[in-house]
Amino acid sequence: MKLPNVERAVVPSRKITHYLLSTTHRDGQHKAEFFHSFGFKIENWQELASALLNHAREHEVIEIVPTPFGRNFVIEGALPAPDERAPKVRAVWFIANGQEIATLATA
């Protein structure tokens, strides 16, 4: 199964710039090191956002985790990177109760 309404999925810019590519974020700094090691840069944050959207379009949902607020959709697969490698990445997308559009939660 694909992420529901994947063509309308959203990657908030702050999720990339203040978390996944932030070397100073308490929880995100290690993720930033990982993504930086494959050539993703905060100056070109849109490149990671686009790669994560394509990741959701290309790979299947492997797990759906219900929460009190909605559902998390877990997707795993290769993520083409700027340095031409393709590390296996797990991304989690969230759809809130009563909503139809997925938002990137984490990777």
Distance between the termini: 19 Å
Q: Spans with pLDDT under 50 lasting ≥5 residues?
A: none
Computed structural class: alpha+beta
**Strand proportion:** 25-35%
Helix content percent band: 25-40%
What is the string of SSEs from the N terminus onward?
HHHEEEE
* Average pLDDT score: 98
Q: How many strands, which pairing sense, and closed or not: the largest β-sheet?
A: 4 strands, antiparallel
How would you describe the shape? globular
Strand order of the largest sheet: 1-2-3-4
Q: Could you name the key traits of this structure?
A:
single chain; 107 residues; alpha+beta; four-stranded antiparallel β-sheet; 3 helices
Please tell me about this protein's structure.
- The chain has helices at 13-20, 29-37, 45-58; strands spanning 61-67, 70-78, 88-96, 103-106.
- The protein is α+β, with helices and mostly antiparallel strands and 107 residues long.
- A four-stranded antiparallel beta sheet has the order 1-2-3-4.
- It is globular.
- The mean pLDDT is 98.
Brief overview:
The chain has 107 residues and is of the alpha+beta class.
List the helices and strands and how they pair.
Elements: H1 13-20, H2 29-37, H3 45-58, E1 61-67, E2 70-78, E3 88-96, E4 103-106
Antiparallel strand pairs: 1-2, 2-3, 3-4
